[in-house]
Amino acid sequence: MFNSETTQKLRSMKLSTMAKHFDQQLTNADISSLTFEERFGLLVDIEWTTRRNNRLKRLIRAANYAEPSAALENIDYAPDRKLDRALIERLATCAYIEKRHNVILLGATGSGKTYIANALGMTASRSFMTVKYVRLPELLADLAIARSEGTYKKVLKAYKTVSLLIIDEWLLTPLGDSESRDLLELAEGRYRKASTIFCSQFAVEGWHEKIGDPTLADAIVDRIVHDAYTIVIIGKESMRKKNGINTES
Predict the structure, then answer these.
(1) Domain with CATH 3.40.50.300 in the chain
(2) pLDDT 10s digits, 69-98
(3) Helices (H), strands (E): how many in the chain?
(4) Contact predicate 231/204, CB 8 Å
């Protein structure tokens, strides 16, 4: 009766993993050779590990990665890509996030920008930092819809406060005035408060033309590039083509 009540109390306190393994200990003859402290330590360890793993799963799910299997150790450092391995390994420590610096990933379509960005994001998630991956068109659409529904400040705050924001397809197409103002609000809100990874096909010098309004362009770019590490992917072969299905075999 006492053991049954203990199990019920553990479950009522949302310690279901501990309750499950407590029941298992009661039926395991081998466990009786352990001290009370050792048995209790095993229960605490399994509950702690389960909660930690569940938290990690929630963080990864909330990040909405385009490539959730991306990993830094699987990055292709083929010579023609001219990737700065030392810089990427330095970014793998996540110190740039702690210091609120940005990362700019530049390269042609299919060069692997998204993969590297997602790999950096996954590293941050595994360090239990909040991450959000989004394509710029989706981000701007979210803000436009939020404005019409009266939730603009709430949605903008969510984008402002995430520890690492990954924006893919950065300035792929020219922006309208309202979109440029939205980006300025976001850039200002994250400036030296959080880190952002920008994936773009265009060199920073071409960003002004995409933003349009010279004043807004200066303000947005100024809040991004001066606190940013830049990774340029030179390789001409599309990584999608290289890693795709070989239809000739």
Answers:
(1) 65-243
(2) 999 999 999 999 999 999 999 999 999 999
(3) 12, 5
(4) no
Spacing of C-alpha 86 from chain mean position: 21
What pLDDT does 246 receive?
Answer: 40
Read off φ and ψ for residue 230, nearest 5 degrees: -120, 130
Out of 1.10.10.10, 1.20.59.10, 3.40.50.300, 1.10.3720.10, which CATH number does the structure's domain 65-243 have?
Answer: 3.40.50.300
- The long-range contacts involving 234-237, CB below 8 angstroms and separated by at least 24 positions, are 234/80, 234/81, 234/82, 234/107, 235/78, 235/80, 235/81, 235/82, 235/107, 235/111, 235/112, 236/80, 236/108, 237/80
Structure tokens at 165: 């924001």
Question: Model pTM?
Answer: 0.86
End-to-end alpha carbon distance in the chain = 66
d(C-alpha 141, C-alpha 147), whole Å? 10
pLDDT in tens, 146-157: 999 999 999 999
* Phi, psi of 199, rounded to the nearest 5 degrees: -105, 115
